[in-house]
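Quarterly update from the structural biology core.
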Amino acid sequence: MVSEEKKETPSGNKEQLEQTTGNNYACCYQCGKCTAGCPAGSFMDNPPCRLMRLVQMGRIEEALKSESLWYCLGCQTCTARCPQNMEVCGTIDALRSMALEKGILSPNRARKLVEAFHHAFLNTVRKNGRLQELALVNSYKLRTGTFFQDIDAGIKMMLQGKINPLSMVLGGERVKGQGQIDKIFELAEKKGHQEATAKRRPGKIEIKPRAEVKIDPAKVIGYYPGCSLSGTAKEFDISTRKMCQLLGLKLEELEDWNCCGASSAHATNHKLSLLLPARNQVLADRQGLDYVLTPCASCLNRQVMARNALQGSPELRGEIKGVMGDEPTCHADFINLMQLLFGLDGEYIKSKVVKPFKDLKVACYYGCLLVRPGNVLGFDDPENPTKMEKLMEMLGAQPMDWALKVECCGAGLTMAKPEVIEELTHKIMRNAASSGAQAIVVVCPLCHSNMDMRQAAMRKRFGDLPAMPVYYVSELVAIACGADPVEVAVGKHFVPALELVSK
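Predicted structure, tokenized:
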């Protein structure tokens, strides 16, 4: 038994990190590949390879005080490209969680802003079971004093019906199983809750394709919209439902689903990031679903990671059984839009296209979490995915060849560090524009928000790019299959997007 005194020593902290991540830190030979690929590396005092070195040397307290923990985007680029199969991103997540637990403060304002966002996010999830976006914004602004940040965007979204001010009074949508949500948070907050992770072996990860998805149009497909699609990403929900209707697919929403915790749960509490989506897995299994469509890339990532953990952990399955009464069978498979569409016969999709796009040049943007980690998601090449390009060709559009299709746009730092988002999106969109693209196609609400809502500020700051529409994949598929662009809410975008697809 390790004494309480030893737990506070550098060696004890290092052992805790090794148990949490599965890393043998002696295997890191400081090649720098993690830092070279890190989108936020230039903002960090200790970029990923230096943090790994600090842990390696047992200088844990120094690592815990690092500003870098609060600039990490959670994009998993560092882990995906590590030649030694080290869990670099997981190390940063574990250090951040440890710093919060120990109350170790960084003097940098970034920590205060990011921590305030995570607290506001998880507090509304704990209260409602789902993220209430307006409650999140109000709580965050009260904590940080950033009352006028994004006020113009907020007013516009209210006028568009994306944000309902009455939800603050009425409470918005809440899960019926609130007692289960309470138990999940209680379990996640217990001391010593971290289950030991399997040891990671040095060497290149062999990426094996996931089992092929086969969609039968006659069968019901589950639908997990996630929190954003009922609010700020309402057009994603509208277009996804319309797309499925035009393709002859029947969706059945997951009953009493809850927020999966992306991205605040995995950034602060590993167990919570597994238990929240695990509840959805149990619900999907109860409904007897084979597949559950999950449009949001971040939601999908958390659901797939949780399902993978459940399959390999009797302890985790036992914990969620104690909450739900049923042990998850993990029969229901959560899939993204690309898997859904490619699960249909290619000729079937082509037969549904009645208004093919002509001369529409698009940059297909996958973002980071749709394809990472490759050994778990495994539906496309994590460095050079091509399925979205093939889909665009089926619709008659012309996908462009460009370099930053899997670069992170900044993800959940959009409220806490908007200036970072502007720099990252500018880099991505400049690369897309230089390829000749007229528009960008995305599959994630966060990606869309960062590139659409923040585009005006980004273009004003840098002044070297024209306005570029940003479309959801579902919007383009629905339009090509006969939907009116207005019908699928393309007019709700911040950057005018109707004209380009109405020609």
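The chain has four domains: 4-102, 109-186, 207-338, 353-502.
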